[in-house]
Structures
1.
Amino acid sequence: MEWVFDGGRPCLDLVNTVRERHEDGRELLTDPAALAEWLRLMGFAVTEASAGELSAARVLREAVDKVLLGEPRSADVLLVNEMASDAPSPWLRYEDGKPVKELRPVSVVAALGALAADTIDLVTEDIAVRICAADDCGLRFCDASPRRSRQWCSMARCGNRAKARAHYARTRKRD
Ligand SMILES: [Zn+2]
């Protein structure tokens, strides 16, 4: 699977489970098993997902995208609010004497709730959400850099390609 986990926030990683949004979009949450796998990789202790939970995840994902890009309909806001109410309560435990915040127990509904709650946190924080500057990418990321100057979803994926293209264009002009 071509998962990408560098949106900088869980809710953005959810949005990025559709790749190539600049075009028609390519779905990565193709079936319930894919959703369960993605949630596990996100750190949620989920064993399996149902078809209903898969459609809930997809609907939430599109509402999250609208909210984060600043163009939500009232239905999107309502959905995010309703699903956030299923977010699990934090659970404090100690690992080698250090406090660790854990979210458990985690059903798919609760995991989606946590992602909806993260959306509310992110949109109300002073963090910019951007779309990658590469015109063939479409991935979303959050920009908490001091000057809000981050351009690429990741340097490795898009930043270096853009640099190489600019370099190629410069050297060609010289010839
Ligand atoms: Zn990119």
2.
Amino acid sequence: MRAHDTTLRTARLTLTPLDPAADAGQLHRAYGDGEVMRWWTRPVCADVADTERHLASCAGRSGARLWTVRTADGEALGMAGLLGEVEVPGLTWLLRKDAWGRGYATEAATAVVGHALGDLGLDRVEAWVEAANHRSLAVAARAGLSERARIAQHYAHRDGPHEAVVLGRPREEEPRTTLGVIAELPVRDVAATLALLGAALGARTGFAIGEPPEFAEVALTPWSAGPRFRLAAVGRRQRVSPVRLHLDVATAAGPLHRRAVAAGARVDGEPTRQPWGRTEFVITLPEGHELTVSAPA
Ligand SMILES: CC(C)(COP(=O)(O)OP(=O)(O)OC[C@H]1O[C@@H](n2cnc3c(N)ncnc32)[C@H](O)[C@@H]1OP(=O)(O)O)[C@@H](O)C(=O)NCCC(=O)NCCS
């Protein structure tokens, strides 16, 4: 059954409301292809019935609007649309392999974005694309989306987590006044803390002021911007109120945990799977600050 009844037309394509029962047969050429499904949230679909079940579950989510992407003569090339049950309207697209490299995905995505921000009156659309999925990143960029953030994801059928780019396009451009939040931890020994975090987490010193350093930046990326926090020296007699930081990582928790233990950091217990879908362990600094290293479970 179709979840909506809007057909979209572009110069070369017709996007018809996706009907899982009627369209699964043709769309299985995409959903049954390991190369096409390499980046998908689930493994390749085993057969047409599996494709139909997957399409029905996607199309059945509240707010979902999916289209079957067709050539002018009605041949189904793939799917494009809006995901259901997401906080910010999210885009999705996929084409069977022999339809790649002809601009069809960009044409379909642009139509969906135009419809979402136009007729549907949505304020913004988003796409989460794995950082290594260059073809999909290019589609998002050509459909007018730009990078807004990065997140760590872990699909149940994959061995480990991966980094995803959150791309977005607002209906009207809006200024972004806050680009980051930087925490400052009071510590007794800035240099020793920098050394410990370097060994335990591979953190780098962004800057260090004073000799020995009184104030420094702990950079958790090799690049000149990105996740970081600061350390400020406090005197031996000053009271320190411990704080807790969550470090959102896109690698498996196990190897990081082993590295932290080997570095001599105070690590409490093994990585633990949390009910909120993360695997976490805690590094406690001498002042009692807790750094929760949090990987997607
Ligand atoms: C993501 C995906 C849909 C992109 O398909 P695509 O065909 O690469 O994307 P486009 O439609 O934008 O096509 C662009 C290519 O068509 C070429 N092209 C040929 N004729 C064109 C035309 N008339 N207009 C525009 N581009 C044209 C472009 O030069 C470009 O070529 P390039 O790949 O060599 O740079 C496809 O790779 C796919 O299905 N991947 C698997 C599923 C997936 O990852 N989905 C996204 C999950 S986030």
3.
Amino acid sequence: MNQRQRGVVLTDLGWERLESAIAAAQETEKYGKRFTQAELEERAGISRKTIKKIRQRTAPVDETSVHALFTAFRLELETADYGLPNSIAIEQQETGNGDRESQHHLQAEQATSLHPVETNGGSDRHETLASQSTRPRGVPFQVPPLPYYFVERPEHQNAVKQILLDTPKHPGTLVVSAICGLGGIGKSVLAVKIAHDPEVLSRFCDGVLWATLGQQPDILAFLSSWIQALGDHSYKPITPTAASAHLRTLLADKHMLLVVDDVWHPEHADLFRVGSSDCCVLITTREARIPQAEGYSLDVMSPDQALELITNMLSTPLSEAEQAQARKFAKRVGYLPLALELTASQIADGVIWTELLEDFQAEVAHLETLDLYSADDIIEDAQRRKYSLTACFRLSLKQLSPEQLQQFAWLGVVPEDVTLTQEMA
Ligand SMILES: Nc1ncnc2c1ncn2[C@@H]1O[C@H](COP(=O)(O)OP(=O)(O)OP(=O)(O)O)[C@@H](O)[C@H]1O
Ligand SMILES: [Mg+2]
């Protein structure tokens, strides 16, 4: 399935060796402070995007770059440190170790989230470890990791969890729940958080399957990967309908959570509605309506959560004045997590708040003169949000990962004079 991908991905062992070496260097050279992206770039002599890919293990990277990063931290790259994406995905399925490596990233080449490479003592790390310890070996767990800067959103987490854990309103039927909302609002991250929740894991004790569909999903490939994850390596379906029917049989006596992430067209999710009433399907979508699903509409972050996201992404605490600026900026970008993440990565890269605010305002003013989104059907609020996001996008252009570029393209905020070329990625 991954024949198109070239390059290698770190194994658990390689990832742990690299992260320990980076942590040790930070301890001795920076008194525990994190290396900035620019410092890492300079040290390893490879781009920050490549470094990010290696550490997040979201996509294959050429072996020479992996070697350069290891060498920069005085590590000898050994064959056990890396492998081909296919073999690593299979190895994880067999060892039940898929939580450390998001298999769906490898399968669908569509990274959404970050590996918790640099924990800040936040609860996400503990939560992930807690969910690991409650999972028996060999149970499929295809859930991506939470970003290291994860911010709890208890009001939403509890509400969606309740939908999944409640007894079905119509006994004997499969519960389908859909998290809906704007692009970049945090739907996928919320689904990841829920899928790591110990109560959810004990209810769905046979595991969690995950598929990130996107605009043009290869539905047969996703369904086939689920069949394999359930241990059936001999059945080779040739149509999505056959695969779906076979999954129904395999799941008949199972208690599993099936996550169908990033659904663009409601009908794409139909063939994933498999499983008995002891299973649940959790969909994330920008679409407001998914038929026969209990919808949950996700809103933007609260001002405090927005500040926490920015703070978590930075290695040093914010002064009171900086906090005030961060709050102002968060308000300006409409408390949208994706825009907040981009803002914080600019600051982490050394841009100062006043400069960022000025650049941002200039960008928005420029966009307004271009009148990019003047279509009659765009209401003022949505238009303002689009300008904010486009401005964030433009200010962060150089440091965006291919996945983020794609996400922005899908959000429709990539201005016409920006082309999504491979060089940018
Ligand atoms: N609770 C959170 N804590 C920290 N960061 C978050 C949180 N929620 C979202 N983010 C950040 O915001 C970005 C967008 O979130 P996410 O990918 O979940 O959005 P989405 O609603 O699924 O978007 P899309 O419709 O494009 O799939 C992520 O890259 C993530 O880093
Ligand atoms: Mg998403």
